[in-house]
Design brief:
The structure holds three protein chains of three kinds.
Chain A (H helix, E strand, L loop, with lengths): L2 H8 L2 E4 L10 E4 L3 H7 L4 E5 L5 H8 L4 E4 L7 H10 L3 E3 L4 H13 L3
Parallel strand pairs in A: 2-3, 3-4, 4-5
Antiparallel strand pairs in A: 1-5
Chain B lengths: L4 E8 L8 H12 L4 H21 L2 E9 L2 E9 L6 H4 L9 H5 L7 H8 L2 E7 L3 E9 L4
Antiparallel strand pairs in B: 1-2, 2-3, 3-5, 4-5
Helix pairs in contact in B: 1-2, 2-5
Chain C lengths: L2 H7 L3 E4 L10 E4 L3 H7 L5 E4 L4 H10 L3 E4 L7 H10 L3 E3 L4 H10 L3 E5 L6 E3 L1
Parallel strand pairs in C: 2-3, 2-6, 3-4, 4-5
Antiparallel strand pairs in C: 1-5, 6-7
Helix pairs in contact in C: 3-4
The chains are: A alpha/beta, B alpha+beta, C alpha/beta.
């Protein structure tokens, strides 16, 4: 499943990175502690977080995430957007909470259990 | 208007280990007084965020709790660097937190904003190199 | 579902709160930022987090969180466990990551829910 599909099925808003939506989404990772995300997330993950400062772009880029998904309607800061555009990292936004969107993405990726 | 309860809780700057201790005590105090759970929650959150701010940035401070039949008043004072630009500090997401603070799970820049949202009346004053004062008032209906 | 069922769904190890396993829980909040937990978590919810410091326990206590679920296989320090016992906050640990843990509970009917500070409105989000 690619990012475009996830965006459509989960009703996500695209803050930037329209050109990167064909990237495959291999999994999901939820977390707000950068050190933890750096240590434990995987390539192809869609990273779900509330952190919106510019450091998230470097982390996402380093880990080759599919993209960043900001929750509870949090918009990326101006610096963050600029950096993300430069690095080609898609940033998406949802009104839902981490728990709820993780639940829906998990179901999308793994099917109902 | 008779005072039901008055107590002062000291907070030591840099004392991350005990962060939240005062908030837990304040909550217990208010619970014993039979305060409505919703009001209790707001007071406890405001106390918690105030406490973490003192610990994160000041040398020392205190939270003074005053409970009247129709209101809860918390006066928070600290001695420390103070806040240079209060408007900036009140902006959601703006943070001057150190890495230590962030790794603890704080430092998202929502502290003062959360306190303001908990309060019915909120005042903040600060003097650079002296410290910061908060006045947090929560109405207790049918008090 | 009860806390016992939560434990089962997440293959979790119970750390604190043996006597409270029959507590009913319907809502959950997942976060690593305590400011968010303070601002949004609804009393009676379970809190899924990777934070293991004592502040998480105090936050949970202040908000009447039903239980703390530590994710990512984290083991809390003794101090955190002691505090959880003292304040009566149930705590369990799962090796699943936050994403997986949220997904599993969600698929069994747990709902994401917030209650914003200063606002009595509860929203399913």
């Amino acid at each position: 499943m690619n990012l475009a599909s996830v965006v459509e099925k989960l009703n996500l808003r695209v803050a930037c990175g329209q050109g990167g939506l064909e990237r495959p989404v291999r999994g999901g990772y939820a977390g707000d502690l950068l050190s933890d995300v750096l240590a434990n997330s995987s390539e192809g993950d869609l990273w779900i977080t509330r952190q919106n400062h510019q450091n998230i772009v470097a982390v996402s880029s380093l880990k080759d995430h599919a993209g960043i998904l900001l929750v509870q309607g949090k918009e990326p800061e101006a610096d963050t957007l600029e950096k993300a555009v430069k690095e080609g990292i898609p940033i998406l936004v949802t009104e839902l909470t981490t728990f709820e969107i993780a639940g829906r993405l998990h179901r999308l990726l793994h099917g109902p259990s | 208007m008779s005072l039901i309860c008055e107590a002062s809780f000291p907070v030591r700057g840099g004392d991350f280990k005990d962060a939240g201790k005062v908030a837990v005590q304040i909550k217990a105090t208010l619970k014993k007084l039979g305060i409505d759970p919703e009001i209790l929650r707001r007071a406890a959150i405001a106390a918690y965020e105030s406490e973490v701010n003192i610990i994160s940035y000041a040398r020392l401070g205190k939270i003074h709790l005053q409970v009247d039949p129709d209101r809860i008043l918390m006066n928070v004072e600290d001695e420390g660097p103070g806040i240079e630009d209060i408007e900036l500090a009140m902006r959601p997401g703006y943070s001057t937190a150190s890495d230590l603070i962030r790794e603890l799970g704080f430092g998202a820049g929502m502290g003062l904003v959360n306190i303001k949202h908990c309060a019915d009346e909120f005042e903040i004053t600060s003097m650079v190199d002296q410290g910061t004062k908060l006045r947090i008032l929560i109405h207790v209906p049918d008090g | 579902m009860t806390l016992f069922e939560v434990m089962d769904i997440l293959n979790a190890r119970l750390l604190v709160g043996r006597k409270l396993l029959n507590t009913e829980v319907k809502t959950a909040f997942s976060a690593d930022l305590l400011s968010d937990v303070l601002a949004y978590a609804r009393p009676g919810s379970v809190l899924l987090t990777g934070l293991t410091n004592p502040q998480v326990v105090r936050t949970a206590s202040v908000l009447d969180i039903a239980a703390i679920i530590l994710v990512r296989g984290k083991i809390p320090p003794a101090e955190t466990l002691r505090l959880a016992e003292e304040l009566g906050v149930p705590m369990m640990a799962t090796h699943y990551i936050l994403f997986e843990s949220s997904g599993r509970l969600y698929s069994r009917g747990m709902v994401g829910c917030i209650q914003k500070v200063g606002n009595d409105e509860i929203m399913a989000l």
